[in-house]
């Protein structure tokens, strides 16, 4: 909330503020909603001054007007199309991995969500020479080891591996609060430096969200809202792509789920109706694209092939999919794929 | 003799003089001849049902000219203000849709147009689109109050779009705002309606399907445009049995219509109509 004070305008003197506060007009929003003549009679300001004040408050606090053509030229010049480096997935996604978007990868446990993120991160660091921020919520040091492992298995020179590793920055995050402050830090640091970061991976958002749900004062949804706003701002402002990992769970009794108010409803008659991404109903609408990575056969735990399906998108038909394999050098296109 | 003077404020006078063109013919499958000026329309739907895409299509129809080099584009040639909170709208998608649309229209007429001409047409049309991106609820409310002055500077604007009303709800509740979703939504739209009430503009906003109170009473639609009321609702849903098929239900004060549609790279494609009372 923007409270009215003398910093916002010299017209808001102590006595004017007192008069406004006595009529419960505390915020800029409330001030603007009142009719100017009423404000004038309350505050003993002249109507002319009230109008000037209104205008100055509007210019200070409203969003910046951007013409469509300027936005188009800005995006054309500054936005970048990233790639996953997995041929069939790139063919499927087309221009989806363009900066300025938030993309979610969801899947059951052990389906290969982290592997997919690491592969995309490594491939972009290698081919695009961009900085990749990897925000890791897991315990242990598996992430760094696996990144090195993927690079070594790609049969590259030591120099290339070192450079690529240097361009991937890993931040460990344990709680939602730490995640929020990490994003705030990124917001400031990305604005200051010239280095070209185009990809931020959060693995995983559900990892810091779930522990919060049992706290007495449950404010999971408020944090999600805050994080979503932050991510939208960062992705647009600095032209970068967010890749967010989310856990999915299997629904055994869809009707029982409807009892919980904040859980995502299950769409009937769709191919994955027994799967449900976590993070609540609010989050469901946040990513512009949602990808599901899943095993073809649940029982065969040694099977390394996976299917990646599109669950939400504005440009690709939903439920279209491609088949990939988890290998030593990360995720690659399945050989049987035609 | 009864002297009856009707006074109008300077703003109303300006609005009348600058009379913003009507948005009639925006999408005949949904509105027939409408929407009427000053109408408020709600678009409601789950994820991936095409809410933002529908808005993108409305923008395309609005900002394109009616004719271009003997090709009938059927555009309305009016300006659009888009207030963005969800940041789902993608201008490249809009440009892409426009390119496909112009090419399709020109090939069906057997006319070839240069790539450069298309680009210039798109760029000049995009001059009619005004984007306001908000990142917090206070910013959004102040932005609403900026719209009247924008409408005076740009008399061509006839359509105000808001995508979506739900973006800041959880944060607002946390900072002591209205908890009841229906009331929150109505209040928010009402502030916007009050700001544009003096002008001949149509307001359309989107709302995710989950965004309603548990004990939601069905709101009545108003016939006349009125602050605090909506005139139409378009509800977008997955088709119950056929895959990749969607249903749009259009409700207003006296009727309810259903239109089926699919989504492809040319946007929403309308299929057939069923009317039910």
UniProtKB/TrEMBL annotation, chain A:
Entry keyword annotation includes Glycosyltransferase: no
GO biological process terms on file: DNA strand invasion; double-strand break repair via homologous recombination; reciprocal meiotic recombination; telomere maintenance
Subcellular location: Nucleus
Main location: nucleus
Gene3D superfamilies: P-loop containing nucleotide triphosphate hydrolases
Domain of life, source organism: Eukaryota
InterPro entries assigned to the protein according to its UniProt record, in alphabetical order: HRR_RAD51_Paralog, P-loop_NTPase, Rad51_C, Rad51D_C, RecA_ATP-bd
Domain RecA family profile, first and last residues per copy: 78-251
Protein name: RecA family profile 1 domain-containing protein
Organism of provenance: Bemisia tabaci (Sweetpotato whitefly)
Family designation: Belongs to the RecA family. RAD51 subfamily.
TrEMBL record, chain B:
Biological-process GO terms, alphabetical: DNA strand invasion; double-strand break repair via homologous recombination
GO-annotated cellular components: centrosome; Rad51B-Rad51C-Rad51D-XRCC2 complex; replication fork
Single annotated GO MF: four-way junction DNA binding
First and last residue of the signal peptide: none
Name of the featured protein: DNA repair protein XRCC2
